[in-house]
Amino acid sequence: MIKFDRKLLIILTLLISSCSSLEVLKQSYKNFSAPPMDESYVVQPGDSIWSISINLNLDAEELIKNNNLKKPYTIYPKQKLTLSGNFLKIHSIQKSQAIKWHHPLGKGSKVAIKEDSWLIFKEPKGQPIHSIHVGKVVVSGPDIPGYGNLVMISHPDGYLSLYAHCDKIFVKQGDDVTKGAMIAHIGNSEAAYPMLRFQLRKNGKPVRAEKLNSLF
């Protein structure tokens, strides 16, 4: 009888210990798990699909798809948008190295100033700006505050190029452009001096300026 009690005690001790370990593992998992992120966004006055995608580093195409938006993708203040699951992903840009990009100002331009994910070219007003690759114009004009006259072009494989502070713009929303096509002139709209502020995005995520310099 005593031997039985000891065996039972050992079994019970092991069971209690395993349950305790399981709880510890569960708690540890919770502690190390990333905190949940907002899965929705309430539209503010002046917002557009493209301004939201830029500000939140989202893929605009996924944002459009997830909210079943139809052209011209009109949204309204206080409208609740579902954010894409791609918002949480980290995208690689390794494949971009294989693409033959056209320099936005041509190879003879000055070396750009690197600012996080932007390249800033200080060039004379009126100098031509070129599309870096084939694509479709999705923004043309002063549609997003802070960027002046902006041209935004959607390219294959999830790429998006931004050309900010333009003077004259020669393309309109919906236009198909070829690689190297002249799309605008350098200007100083919403800028202290003439410049081109350029950015490239992959699936909504900005490509770091250090990477950009090596692409052209």
Description of the molecule:
With 216 residues, the chain is α+β, with helices and mostly antiparallel strands. It has 2 domains: 40-88, Roll (Membrane-bound Lytic Murein Transglycosylase D, Chain A), CATH 3.10.350; 95-213, Glucose Permease (Domain IIA), CATH 2.70.70.10. The protein is 23% helix and 26% strand. The chain is built from 4 helices and 12 strands, in the order αβααβββββββββββα. The strands form 2 sheets. Strands 3, 4, 5, 6, 7, 8, 9, 10, 11 and 12 form a 10-stranded antiparallel β-sheet that branches. The chain has a two-stranded antiparallel ribbon with strand order 1-2. A hairpin with a 3-residue loop joins β7 and β8. The termini are far apart. The relative contact order is 0.15. The model is unreliable at 24-37 and 86-96 (pLDDT under 50).
Which series of helices and strands comes N to C? Answer: HEHHEEEEEEEEEEEH
Main beta sheet: 10 strands, antiparallel
CATH 4th-level superfamily of the largest domain: Glucose Permease (Domain IIA)
- The helix fraction, in percent, is 10-25%
Count of helical regions: 4
The CATH architecture of the largest domain: Distorted Sandwich
Topology:
Blueprint: H1 2-32, E1 40-42, H2 49-55, H3 60-66, E2 80-82, E3 113-115, E4 118-121, E5 128-130, E6 135-141, E7 149-155, E8 159-169, E9 176-177, E10 182-186, E11 196-202, E12 205-206, H4 209-213
Antiparallel strand pairs: 1-2, 3-4, 4-11, 5-10, 6-7, 6-9, 7-8, 8-10, 8-11, 11-12
